Amino acid sequence: KLFFTDYGNAAKVERCDMDGMNRTWIVDSKIEQPTALALDLINKYVYWLDIYLESVEVVDYQGRRRQTITKGRQIRHLCGLAVFENNLYTINSDSLSILRINRYNSTDVQALARLDNAKEVRVYQKRSQAAVRSHACEGDPYGMPGGCSHICLLSSSYKARTCRCRTGFILGSDGRSCK
Description:
The protein is mostly beta strands. 0% of the residues lie in helices and 40% in strands. Strands 4-5-6-7 form a 4-stranded antiparallel β-sheet, with no helix packed on it.
């Protein structure tokens, strides 16, 4: 799945399959300006910052069990969001510091380091990476991902895929080759 925010005409948090199909709104009420999003891949939660409502909130992958993690004026200056273990990590653009927020006790907030011009934060750690099973976009015997000549996108499950072409090409009638 692909998760993303939108604060155009109607602010929302959405999800879709990697090929863009099955687009679903998972948060569409009490949301104004969602600017950052992070996933808890293990527990299947979606966290987001709303700088207009000055809140950090969470829902499960279906948009249920919504909770506010923290709220207040300090949210207005946050950008970027990452989750790892019991904490959320974000950047305070006002003080240029990386913050760690305990996602179960929002009063536990610590500034970890100061960085000039930081706008995004990511956690790279083996335990934060989901184990990958074999999937429909694995290379075939000829090295083509999922048997697609250009681009392979996972579809509704790890067993299904959709082939796409680079700009200037069209997908052939076989659904795999680009011309």
